[in-house]
């Protein structure tokens, strides 16, 4: 018997208090943080540890969750994936993804996305996944195109970081597109 949360390279799992050090180190990479959301002032190790303990104690939600992407062999955290913007009326959701710089280009991101989409489409009855990617984040743009996501729109100059304005590119994938490619 195999878990739907396990792929060939990664296992998606809940956050554990011990994960704090890895994610605290990821937060030190300002360029990578900017690619995913927004840069914030440094957080103390004590606050990062407390936040990890609080996150580990939260009861998981069936539709909205934040999971660790762990390397299958070692079990070490390599990134995180979350779901948000849940719209049950229309059957849509969005997700966010980050993989620490030392772990990129190993197939972890694409496999984590497939695992989450498979769960959301076939267990939770959603019909469409969306992802917003900053226009300057070339690796993420390439990932979503390679995975078969359709570019659906662009919000021009909607995100400010590193002294400049950046576009947000909306990607979408329907359950039919996913099934044709991954099921």
UniProtKB/TrEMBL annotation:
Species the sequence originates in = Actinomadura luzonensis
Q: Which SUPFAM superfamilies match?
A: Acyl-CoA N-acyltransferases (Nat)
- What is the protein name stated in its UniProt record? GNAT family N-acetyltransferase
Segments forming domain N-acetyltransferase: 10-176
Organism domain of life: Bacteria
Q: Pfam families, alphabetically? A: Acetyltransf_3
Which InterPro entries does the annotation name? Acyl_CoA_acyltransferase, GNAT_dom, Ribosomal_N-acetyltransferase
